[in-house]
Amino acid sequence: MAPLTIPLNDGKQIPWLGFGTGTALYGKDAANSVRVAITNGIIHLDGAQLYGNEDTLGEGIAAAGKPRSELFVTTKLGKLPEGKTVRDTLVESLKKLRLDYVDLFLIHMPIHHEGKLKSVWKQFEELQKEGLVKSIGVSNFRIKDFEEILEVATVVPAVNQIEYHPYVYKAAKPLLEFHKKHNIVTTSYGGLTPIVRHKGGPVDPLLASIRGRLEKETGKNVSEGQVLGLWLRSQGIPEITTSSKEERVKEYVATQELPDLTAEEVEAIKEAGSKVHHRAFCTWLDGN
Predict the structure, then answer these.
(1) Quick check: 238 pLDDT over 90?
(2) Would you say the pTM of this structure is higher than 0.85?
(3) Across residues 81-95, what is the average pLDDT?
(4) Cβ distance 162 to 279 under 8 Å?
(5) 8 Å CB contact between 102 and 75
(6) What's the pLDDT tens digit per position in 44-85?
(7) Catalytic status, residue 51
(8) Assuming Cys at both sites, which of 91, 166, 171, 185 could form a disulfide with 159, CB separation 3.0 to 4.6 Å?
(9) Which of 44, 51, 179, 189 is catalytic?
(10) How far is CA 182 from the centre of its chain?
(11) Which are the contacts of 60, defined by CB distance < 8 A and separation ≥ 6?
């Protein structure tokens, strides 16, 4: 089965399922995990300068031997070192990744570029023109960060990659509406938080009952993690996830073949998630 993709506002497509080299792989050798992910059918790889492992992400891509044109590779701008341009850091990243271009380049954290976001975004636009990046976007942006760059932007960011799961749904709602208005794709990281970082919350019983329905309907084993993935898929939100276990990677890939949640199930998860607020990453966002 061909990987599921979501259209971006620049005419490109982003594969729905991405394998991230942060969290469990942060600062670690990602080569084997990346090779395993690609071998099992994941074509979207999500790295970052901040993760400190772009070189082993590149190694894993090379080891998998899949044609470059069939892969979708993202990296993200970290803090800009004194005297360096955005382009300088991207050229370094491409060397580490062993690539001529990335499919998606994101501003990782708006708080790393206070007072300079406009200039950074204009540099992103230039890199897109040059062909070093195919699509440009942002991560962990608030509405006020968008408003700042949109004053000078000729290109609207294609994506905003944020922590997104039922326990931040309520807090994220105004941002999701902003994304919709500007045709920006919301991408989720930390989507499994309700089952790996906040067990015992109000969403648990729903995940269990939906899992039961899907198992009955498909005759396949379904996990609660897959139900959370389907919840994201139903909203057109790509899922960036990670694991060092091959069976878990296979499970993520198999999610693509499972049937959709019903509209009622999607809403019920949103409603239950709204009873609790739990942000696992970038907690500075809660103060803004």
Answers:
(1) yes
(2) yes
(3) 94
(4) no
(5) yes
(6) 999 999 878 888 999 999 999 999 999 999 999 999 988 999
(7) yes
(8) 185
(9) 51
(10) 18
(11) 30, 31, 32, 33, 34, 35, 37, 38, 45
